[in-house]
Amino acid sequence: MRLLKFILLAGLLVVLPFLGQAATEQTDAAAVVHAAGEAVATTAEHGHEEHHGLPAYAPQIKLGPFTVTNSMIMTWIVAILVIVFAQFATRKIQAVPSGAQNFWEFLVEGLYGFLEGIIGSHLVKKTFWFFATIFIFILFTNWAGLFPGVGSIGWGEHAHGSFMGLDSFSHVSRPLFRGANADLNMTSAMAIVFFLMWIVWSLQSNGVGGFLKHIFGYSGDATGFMRIGLIAVFLAVGVLEVISIAFRPVSLSFRLYGNIFAGENLLESMALMGGKWFGWLVPLPFYFMELIVGLVQALVFMLLTAIFTSLMCSHGDDHAHGHEGEDKAHH
Fold this sequence. Notes:
This protein is mainly alpha-helical. It has helices at residues 2-26, 29-40, 70-89, 99-119, 121-144, 184-216, 224-278, 284-330, and strands at 60-63, 66-69, 154-163, 166-175.
């Protein structure tokens, strides 16, 4: 069973980029992202040099018969490293953990206790695997995007002159690697997967009738015309709730993408501001800030998805607990 879960999680991390890319191609998000890239792009005129910033859309790379993006490659690298590290840390479980095992147990137990206090002990048993995976994956992909070479090695535009015998570059327009969450495809894929899981968990906890009643139903004790009016009001509120639910994947994906994309552009701008000699020094304070931003954004994504799930499923879980208590009392 443990091996099956490991295989499913590994497959999920590999498929996520393809899912996000397909979803974006089927909508007008590509046009929106392209327009956003043009809006974010800044022009700094130094003679004939122009700086356009990190492109909002991920450049495509041909790998034999397949076409992938540089953010997909970064996603695979991070996923493989996390899986290998987890397997290495847990290959020989010890009663008194140390080293890598101690780190993973601290991380997993801390996340479990944190989520248990938010969504309850019953719901966390069902959903912890997803929320913990999302947090760990987003955290490490955010931090991996800060490594030297990510976003700064690739194909670009030549500037006038040279440095230490090498031609100078004014801008890397097609980086070989790119932060995974600086690509809207990746964040959209995670938001869509969560939305599908949210529907499954909601139907499991409430059933189809309970699901619709939770959104549109009126459970008060009013009578007569007052009851009819309140039912109409709750139906209208339910329509607004459906619209809100439909936009949750949009807000989740754009929040994470916007923060990480802006952070990468900020670091590049600070490096260019430092010039040829101090381009490595000026961004350093902002690197520490981006470490915090990466942690906060992973936490925010996990918290919002957990709270959205709890709002719909906790009532069904409490109802189930009540029946269990009644059965124990009868016995």
